[in-house]
């Protein structure tokens, strides 16, 4: 579906890079960007500009037509989108153990991109503090989490929500439960 194009591109970049045995540093050097930026793009933490995206594809030495085959559909847009749970797209993020993501919906609106995700968090889930080039809304569907944003910690129980600038270092973990499930909405601003 067209609303998923940017995230399909991110996933395909990672898939092709790994398939060719190219490291993050090698593709970054070849494309003239930082390793950190490539990692953020591959893990859907930032949306690349067109020149950066084309530079990464070129660095992978793959034909644009081959790269975009099966990503861009020519079907006309629909005014109502229904997404069945079996259509949710699982994806992973960097260095995250016990974090299970499923993309429900992703859509570009003018200079903004919205990504709606389900996150299942296991009791012993671990990852380093992260930054995301977006604002984030979190809603706890079940369980409880301890959310660290900057130097502040927040306990969120089932039914609680929060909204914050994810450019600030942040992280979460289960709080006194075996599993937590969150609805996450990322608001990316492409004009930044």
Given as residue ranges, the uncertain stretches (5+ residues, pLDDT < 50) are none
- Class based on secondary structure composition and strand pairing: alpha+beta
Alpha plus pi helix count: 5
**Would you report the number of β strands?**
9
What does the radius of gyration come to?
Answer: 17 Å
Ordered list of secondary-structure elements with their pairings:
Blueprint: H1 5-19, H2 24-31, H3 35-42, H4 50-59, H5 64-68, E1 89-91, E2 97-109, E3 112-126, E4 135-142, E5 144-149, E6 152-157, E7 161-165, E8 170-174, E9 179-189
Antiparallel strand pairs: 1-2, 2-3, 3-9, 4-7, 4-9, 5-6, 5-8
Short characterization:
The chain is α+β, with helices and mostly antiparallel strands and 192 residues long. The chain is built from five helices and nine strands. A hairpin with a 2-residue loop joins strand 2 and strand 3.
Explain what this protein looks like in three dimensions.
There is one protein chain. This protein has 192 residues and is of the alpha+beta class. The chain has five helices and nine strands; from the N terminus they run H-H-H-H-H-E-E-E-E-E-E-E-E-E. The chain has a six-stranded antiparallel β-sheet with strand order 1-2-3-9-4-7, covered by helices on one side. Strands 6-5-8 form a three-stranded antiparallel β-sheet, with no helix packed on it. Strand 5 and strand 6 (152-157) form a beta hairpin. Helix 2 (24-31) packs across helix 3 (35-42) and helix 2 (24-31) packs across helix 4 (50-59). 22% of the residues are buried.
């Amino acid at each position: 579906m067209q609303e998923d194009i940017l995230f399909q591109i991110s996933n395909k970049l990672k898939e092709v890079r790994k398939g060719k045995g190219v490291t993050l540093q090698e593709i970054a050097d070849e494309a003239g960007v930082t390793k950190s930026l490539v990692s953020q793009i591959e893990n859907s933490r930032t949306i690349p500009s067109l020149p950066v995206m084309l530079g990464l594809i070129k660095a992978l030495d793959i034909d644009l037509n081959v790269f975009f085959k099966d990503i861009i559909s020519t079907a006309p847009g629909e005014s109502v989108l229904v997404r069945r749970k079996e259509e949710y797209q699982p994806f992973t993020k960097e260095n995250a153990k016990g974090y299970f993501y499923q993309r429900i919906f992703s859509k570009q609106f003018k200079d903004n991109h919205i990504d709606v995700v389900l996150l299942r968090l296991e009791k012993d889930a671990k990852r380093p503090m992260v930054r995301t080039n977006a604002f984030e809304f979190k809603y706890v569907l079940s369980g409880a989490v301890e959310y660290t944003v900057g130097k502040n910690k927040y306990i969120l129980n089932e039914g609680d929500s929060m909204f914050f600038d994810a450019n600030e270092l942040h992280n979460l973990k289960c709080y006194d439960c075996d599993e937590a499930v969150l609805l996450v909405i990322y608001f990316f601003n492409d004009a930044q």
